[in-house]
Design a protein that fits this description.
This protein is α/β, with parallel strands linked by helices. Helix content is 30%, strand content 26%. The structure holds N,N-dimethyl-L-histidine (AVI).
């Protein structure tokens, strides 16, 4: 299971429902069903991010070749099935070690076994960790370290958290090491909004799966259809927001508590921040990285940023 983590870390899925502005941390979107729905999202015609990033990686091989000009270790955060990494492993020499980091131990073990068969010459060592928390790297014996954080997952962090997170990553690196960061860019709002409210309703199902999860984990029986999926671009904050909006006044009985929800009241379930290069320069400045190079698709929907340690 691929896990994406973000925003405030509540103790459980219900904690934010007792606050005046109700919210659920987006980390709860990724149970087994949610992870499968997210995989489906990445194939949707409206969700341009995944395929655009893969194309950018493939079309800029000379950039990656110059990053890996010496014996290097590639360290991937939230590796999942390492799909995009294979583009680098297939085309770039000098990657002597690959360190996928993922919270799901079982998933990680399978990925490592499969990759080791396909790339016998690369030393592959999985690290099972929550990469949003401080973690240590294995001894990489003086190799250049290149951190790979694709998928625009940085967008699911609140800005202050993104800074702190990259600051932690920076502390694992030395001058000469680099970070390859995938970011979704600011653009025409209708394009972004369609990506988070697709015609087939997969993103709606992904969002509403939070209700199914609450029902399962807290012996509740909330009507999933009593909430509708809402996604809109908040231009002043530079982010898309996902919410669950109640279609009627209702009282939820969960975990021995009752929670009143008014008709049209919203539960905020995700933020996904969009970053232009200026925003990345700023983020790098506050976390110890210098933006070196930005490669994008021709529509400038998505960017892969190369950042060096300062
Ligand atoms: C995982 N993350 C980068 C996705 C995003 O675009 O923010 C999660 C997602 N939410 C709805 N669709 C996709």
């Amino acid at each position: 299971m691929k896990t994406h983590l973000n925003v405030k870390a509540p103790s459980n899925i219900l904690s934010g429902l007792f606050e005046e502005k109700k919210w659920i941390s987006s980390k709860f979107l990724y149970d087994e069903q949610g992870s499968q729905l997210f995989e489906q999202i990445t194939d949707l015609p409206e969700y341009y991010q995944t395929r655009t990033e893969a194309r950018i990686l493939l079309e800029n091989l000379s950039t990656w070749k110059s990053v890996f000009h010496e014996p290097s270790a590639l360290i991937e955060l939230g590796s999942g099935s390492s799909k995009k990494t294979k583009i680098l492993l297939d085309h770039v020499k000098n990657i002597e070690s690959y360190i996928p980091i993922d919270i799901s131990e079982e998933f990680l073990a399978d990925t490592v076994t499969q990759l080791q068969t396909s790339y016998p010459e690369i030393h592959i060592q999985g690290v099972s960790a929550d990469y949003t928390q401080p973690f240590t790297l294995p001894d990489l014996k003086g190799k250049k370290k290149v951190i790979f954080f694709p998928g625009s997952t940085i967008g699911n962090f609140e800005p202050g958290e993104a800074e702190r997170f990259l600051g932690n990553i920076r502390s694992l690196l030395e001058p000469g090491d680099e970070l390859i960061l995938g970011v979704d860019r600011k653009k025409d709002e209708t394009v972004i909004e369609a990506a988070y409210d697709d015609a087939a309703g997969v993103t709606a199902a992904f969002n509403k799966n939070l209700i199914t999860r609450i029902n399962r984990e807290h012996e509740a029986s909330i009507d999933v259809e009593s909430f509708s999926h809402v996604a809109f671009y908040n231009s002043s904050a530079g982010r898309i927001e996902m919410h669950l909006e109640s279609v009627r006044d209702q009282v939820l009985s969960v975990g021995g508590h009752t929670i009143e929800v008014k008709k049209q009241e919203r539960i905020h379930t995700e933020n996904s921040y969009k970053y232009d290069p200026e925003d990345i320069i700023q983020l790098g400045r506050s976390s110890g990285f210098l933006l070196q190079r930005v490669v994008s698709d021709e529509r400038e929907y998505f960017s892969v940023c190369l950042m060096e340690v300062v």
